[in-house]
Amino acid sequence: MMRMLAAAIIALGASLLPAATAAQVVTLDFPCWQAEEPGFSDWWRGLIADYESKHPGVKIKLYSLPFASYVNQLTVRFAGNNPPDIVLLPTRNFASFASQGWLEPLDAELKASDIPGHWSKLQSEMSWDGKSYGVLLLPYGNLLYYNEQILRAANVKVPTTPDEWLDAMAKTTHRDQGIFGLVTTTAEHPNMFIDAATWVLGERQDWLKGNHYSFTDPGVVAAMEQFRKSLGYAPPGTSSTLARQLFIDGKAAFLRDGPWVWATLQKAKPEIRVSLKMAPLPFAVVTGGASNGLHMPATLDAQKHKLVWEFILLAASPAWQEKYVQLTASPAGRVGMISAAQAKADPHLAAITQAAEQAENLFPQQPTLRENFTEFATLFSRAVVRMQSSSQSTLVILTNLQKELVDAIPLP
Amino acid sequence: MPAARRAMLALAAAAVAAIVLFPVYWMLLTALLPGELTRSRAPALLPQWSLLSVDAFAAALARKPVLTWVGNSIMVTVGATVLSLAIATLAGYSLSRFKSRAQQGAGFALLASKMLPSSLIVIPFFIGFSTFGLIDSRGGLILANAAVGVPFATWLIKGFFDSIPREIELAAMLDGCNGWQAVWYVVLPLARPGLAACAMYLAIVTWSDFVFARTLVSNPDLWMLTVGMQSFLGEYLVDWSSLMAVGTLSLAPVFVLFLLLEPFLVSGMTQGAVAN
Amino acid sequence: MIGRSRWMGYALLLPAVIAVGFLVAYPLYLVVATSLRQGKSLNVLHLSQLPLGLGNYRLVLGSEATWHSVGVTLVYLVGTIGPAFAIGLVTALLLNRSFPARRWLRSFILLPWAVPGVIVSIVFLWLLDGSFGIVNALLRNAGWLSTDLAWFATDETALGAVIVATIWKCYPFFTLTLLAALQAIPASLYEAAQVDGAGAWQRFRFVTWPGLRAAATLSVILNTLWALREFDIIYLTTGGGPDRATETLAVRIYQEAFAFFRMGTASALGVLTMALAALLVLVSLRPLRREYF
After folding, report:
1. CA gap B263, B265 in Å, rounded
2. Which chains touch C (3 or more CB pairs under 8 A)?
3. ipTM of this predicted complex?
4. What class is the C57-292 domain?
5. Which fold has domain B55-268?
6. How many CA atoms lie within 13 A of B169 on its CB side?
7. φ/ψ of residue B46, rounded to 5
8. Given B140, B231, B236, which is nearest A260 (Cβ)?
9. How do residues A242-262 score in pLDDT, each as one tens digit?
10. Which of A44, A50, C54, C190 has the maximal Cβ count within 10 Å?
11. For residue A325, what is the domain's CATH number?
12. CA distance C247 to A325
């Protein structure tokens, strides 16, 4: 045992020695959850290779950080004053990071660039407290995905109004055979907010009138009632990833989601793949939002600040923005990245881009709500869960939700 | 014991094992079958042999550095287990043979470390470890996991030392050993079941640790298996079969460890080594 | 080492105290310090910028949500540790005998402990899925279920489902500890009891249980402390829902800290949790001391 102990102590000592540092090279730390995702990882690596060739002596250390713990881990690093040099953030968390003073305002740099005027209007999501903190990478508009074969079997056509959609869901649900009219998030999760928003905002209602919550507004209640009905056609207790998976398995007639589903459809079995199609959502207003953006931590020294900004600029350049669309099949932040010829050759890409350009932001713009978005969405999702499980009327549930929100997140 | 009795016991144990292992069985099935079959309305309990395939295992091993993760996990687990065992044996002996109020206090203080909620220690740990340059190092993980394992291991070993009468040590010392030799050659072998149980406990604590592994290590080359498994949970889709394949694989080293340590769980005491 | 001065005793204890104390001291200090600072900041390295006060405690102790969480936590603790201990005891007694393939069966029965929390959650989410889970399929076949009951997403069943998953993961801890303790009971005691005409139950009560008591007490306390902190399984299956049905203190603390960015209240809740844990240890002080000192 003594020998084992000695070996362990030596091993311990050896592993504690710091790794040899490379000479004279500036390394930019860049954890990224997309580092190994098909499409996105190709874009990032290509971008980094291009950047490094233009900046000898600078290396960008791109490495993977799993999405499931990404925001968590970044929170720990920022709180521990050891943030990455290049920060990719899901935009729903942006406001809380910015309000902690963790991100660097980039107004001057943005003004000097050609980004204002050439970017998606959702770039406004990168602002906080009057300053701009980053560049939007992935704007999106929600889309309707449907399984043509299931629709045909039920003799249903692609819906163009919410009522038609509910009707189609009813006709295509055959629980005993494991086929559902709709798959969506039915397990309590902040994502439920996005789902409900497509119904409410899609029908031109809003739960925020001026600076007040208006959940009891008759229009809002009616739209939420329809949303509640739709949940009845979906398998209960499903997460968003399971919902997508079930759609790809051919077990659902409809799925409401963003443009990223198109790429994941490739994982479907060939006989199912041919039936999976995309269409605009049957609402008057196309809703969408900002998915993620590039930011800079506030603690960089002048040299790194300049280097990271140049990286962001390169990512925002027309050449790389075009490649973004091509490689990731997602809408790019820069507008007009799809030529007419391309649009004709690839209609789904055109549809995705169009949805992103037309999309109305479904995320609240009110600063207090932005800063406390997770709490807002959590309270909201509890109300949705109550809609699924209790027999209380929608008005009662929404009245209680409003009361909770006024208590927890009072608007000034 | 009559053979029939033994056979019945074996059967009872096997039945318990079967019930208890059903989730693990399901993990294995998910890894071996195409996804839609496990995600069906009426999943089959016993699959058809022809449908089983190890594609998921092959794909997972090919696409991601699973073996690197396993290697890291093994290194950190062995390191933490050995370190904790050494520290805990010394401490357990101390608590057993030297009784005083201060000792009792220290013993209870060890339990205090088990009272901190993990969500709240993540940030202080990160700050503390990065101050000492222990971020992104297996050594840091070994230290962190050792700190987690030592409290219970100490108490467990103390319990075993308690059941070994002091007379044995005195007898050995009368025979010419000094204090240390008495412990090394006489007491420790008798405490083998306790040490084996401790080793198993410590190994599991470290092997399945996730919080430290994720917080203290960013470099993917140094990922432990628990963190690596998370990378199968994508932003949009989950790679279910690969995740279950790697999950099942993660049980193999632990199972082997159990098999290896199991004989030590049998104590010499039951063979009447002590004339009591 | 018998016969050496008590300083030798302290010296032997020192590495353990250093290892544990060193890593516990700073987090403990930071948690308490943060709980006394009011304001919504995660900048724990600049705590002095925030005002000092007991506001967080007032908020936490006065909030209905806190006591709801305490209630859920207590149900979770009792619901998990009780059955897990029972299963651990039964399996330990079973595995204490010698029979063919014991080595393998022992290793199999201990296996659930080694399954990482992430996987436990995903597997149970699947087994208990409302529409596609095998448990429901079996129940439907047996005629006991007519709807798609989503175990983790229905208020009445969520806590139970989470408890089942936790029991599954933690019972081997009892099996291992109790088995090791059983091995330390000399066979001669059993023989003597049998010679005296004691039946199975009496043998258990007068030979087995006294030998097990110490290990049982210790393992119950430690596993309860573990369950008090347990977070992964609950969060990944239910996220604390549905509608707070499974929102234990551990889940609430995580949410306050990492979702709502309110480190102050999270730390106050943390101190409350530690107080609960300390209460637990205090209550068990006498039995522990009796067994071990």
Report:
1. 5
2. A, B
3. 0.90
4. mainly alpha
5. MetI-like fold (1.10.3720)
6. 23
7. -115, 115
8. B236
9. 999 999 999 999 999 999 998
10. A44
11. 3.40.190.10
12. 42
